[in-house]
Design a protein that fits this description.
This protein is an all-alpha fold. It has 10 helices and 2 strands, in the order H-H-E-E-H-H-H-H-H-H-H-H.
Length: 258
């Protein structure tokens, strides 16, 4: 058991070193959410939200947790699915199968690296929100941690599942973003979408909206109690199981024949 843990830790370290050796891609992963944050916060600096309860809420207080969720989903779903597809197309995954490194350790390294990037994004966005925009964080560390861990696991499994459906590396970014950004938009990733609206009902089927809701609950200063959202967490977990099953059955180590 200790040997397996050490092997996994070394592989995560390797993937992290590989990730940071491409500063352009790594910088974009961290810079893009901050750019979106600054743009939308500037456009809505005095805006308040009335659709999330009887008490008005500053727009930025809602948008910071939405951006936190966005960062996690981007690292664990979009980036992971694209990275796996590119590695498969380049023959890297096939070569890995021919080495003594167990497949579970290689994939675990990719997933662990994505989770580390997610954690750094959460810290960065939260610090910017508190310092630059004066948002309130009620200190609900446990609900936030549970939500982020479950969200990371869910969207990592979905990212692996999506990689099996992407035909080649060139199509990866287009397919991943075509799925992610429309879902993000109708799920309240930029502005709250009423649950009773048509788009709200459609979004409620997918895990993006539930992840945003559960993350926002940890930041909501109007909320009493722990800040858990059991229904949202349950939907996320169900999608995580679906993604895991699909990934286990459909994951491909070799590029498609052309």
């Amino acid at each position: 058991m200790s040997n397996d843990a050490a092997l996994l830790a070394r592989q995560i370290g390797y993937e992290q070193r590989s990730y940071w050796r491409n500063p352009t891609a790594a910088g974009f992963t961290f810079l893009f959410p901050i750019v979106l944050l600054v743009i939308f916060a500037s456009l809505n600096s005095k805006a308040t939200i009335t659709t999330l309860g009887p008490v008005r809420l500053k727009y930025i207080q809602y948008y910071i947790p939405a951006i936190v969720a966005f960062g996690v989903m981007g690292a664990c779903f979009t980036n992971l699915s694209i990275t796996v597809t590119l590695k498969r197309d380049a023959g890297i995954l096939k070569r890995v199968r021919g080495t003594p490194l167990p497949p579970w350790a290689y994939l675990g390294g990719l997933l662990g690296s994505s989770v580390i990037v997610s954690v750094l994004l959460v810290v960065l966005v939260t610090v910017v929100g508190v310092v630059a925009y004066g948002i309130t964080f009620p200190g609900r560390w446990l609900p936030l941690a549970v939500t982020l861990v479950l969200g990371s696991a869910t969207f990592c499994s979905l990212g692996l599942a999506l990689s099996a459906a992407i035909p080649n590396g060139e199509a990866g970014p287009a397919i991943a973003n075509l799925i992610f950004f429309p879902l993000l938009s109708i799920s309240g990733g930029f502005y709250p979408v009423p649950d009773t609206s048509v788009l709200g009902r459609v979004a409620s089927v997918f895990p993006v909206k539930h992840f945003i809701n559960a993350t926002f609950a940890a930041y909501d200063p109007r909320r009493h109690g722990w800040g858990f959202r059991p229904t949202d967490l349950a939907v996320m977990a169900a999608w995580g199981v679906v993604g895991l099953v699909v990934a286990l059955r459909r994951f491909r180590w070799e590029p498609s024949l052309r």
